[in-house]
Amino acid sequence: MSDTVWWTSQQAGVAVALGAGLLIGLERERRKGRGQDRASAGLRTFMVAALAGAVAQTVSLWLAVMTLAGVGALAALSYWRSRSDDPGLTTELALVATALIGMQAVSQPELAAACAAVLAGVLAAKERLHHFATDWLSEDELHDGLLLAALALVLLPLLPAEPLAWLGALSPRRVAMLVLLILLMQAASHLGQRLLGPRAGLPLSGLLGGFVSSTATVGAMGSLVRNGQVPLRLGLCAAVLSTAATWVQVLAMAAVVSPTHVLPWIPMAALGVTVPALVGLILWRLDGQAPQQVERTPGGRVLRLREAALVAALLVGGAVLVHWAQQRGSAGLLTATAIAALADAHAPVAALLSMYRAEQVALGLGVAGVLVAVSVNSLTRTVVATVSGGPRFGALVAGALLCNLSVVWGAWALGYLT
């Protein structure tokens, strides 16, 4: 019985290998061309390579090594004898990869099938990938993408993961993850504007900009309204949606600081998002006029490192301040939270979430502290809206913020958030 199952497994692996070779070979056959200038590897070649890899893997390791070396030698010979002016090695490398997928199919048929599908998709997307890399993606965007990858994959793992008491139970790695979250939100905001354009994507840009800094987004929208570049309702819609991002960011920061303690913060975040989301939707539906003069900037910088560095400094300073005040009781903690939130709500909120994770503050006090931080920062946003967009714009933003805070504070007073 065991022998029957073993052979059935081998047969399934060979079948998957043939299917993988067929899938990849079909894509290559369509690009092979015709006549004397056609490429040497097509549908049959790729199926044979996958089958040879599977059969060799079932016989012995040495035969698999020899088969892979033979496929590689044939691919190199094919490239050397190619009459095409295209210097690319895609087909030759795909042939070697197909042999490897055939070998993998014997022991891991599911993974081999997935690899074959991905490889065929990459091969089929040649024009789109070339257009993305050479035309759509700017030089600045490429550099910023590489920088973001380096920060996430190189710098972040090197930072200490041990919490520091003087940093409000935050660790250097957690602080870096929060800064990385800010940078990712910057990239998402930039991508939204690139894909939709300022006219169609202004509300989305406001929402995504709120993840980076709702205060800065409100100021930017106020300036656009004051200069007559966008209608009042549409600019106000984007500004209000940026305040909704503040509550989502509380939940995102909770997931970064303490992934196992996210659930208690969901009701507050959901309630905080509801009012600005409804107000923004109403403003969007009421506004029947498109923006008049909004320039669309292709490419450009994705990451604003100076802003991210400022956020990092505020995070560290606010965390130290909140930790120092926590030792002086609840009143001192809330006072320090309010002072830190005048500049930015990120730092005190991150510190409170970290203290809750370390069981240094109770959930009720932590929720109250977050509400204090958002409320005080709302005063800052109101002032910025008035200065940048004028008294009318500032009054409308203040009304939306007051309505939002009244609902959340009311739910907290009634005991629904603790």
Largest sheet data: none
Q: Look at the helices and sheets and give the structural class.
A: mainly alpha
Helix content: over 70%
Helix tally equals 15
- Shape estimate: elongated
What string gives the helices and strands in order?
Answer: HHHHHHHHHHHHHHH
Describe the structure.
It is a single chain. This protein is mainly alpha-helical. The chain is 79% helix and 0% strand. The longest helix is centred in the middle third of the chain and has 55 residues.
Features:
418 residues, mainly alpha, 0% strand, elongated, disordered N terminus
Quick overview of this protein structure:
The chain has helices at residues 2-30, 43-59, 61-81, 90-107, 109-124, 126-136, 139-158, 172-226, 232-257, 266-286, 305-326, 329-341, 346-357, 363-389, 391-413.
Which helices and strands occur, and which strands form pairs?
Blueprint: H1 2-30, H2 43-59, H3 61-81, H4 90-107, H5 109-124, H6 126-136, H7 139-158, H8 172-226, H9 232-257, H10 266-286, H11 305-326, H12 329-341, H13 346-357, H14 363-389, H15 391-413
Helix pairs in contact: 1-2, 1-4, 1-5, 2-3, 2-4, 3-4, 4-5, 7-8, 8-9, 8-11, 8-14, 9-10, 9-13, 9-15, 10-15, 11-12, 11-13, 12-13, 12-14, 13-14, 14-15
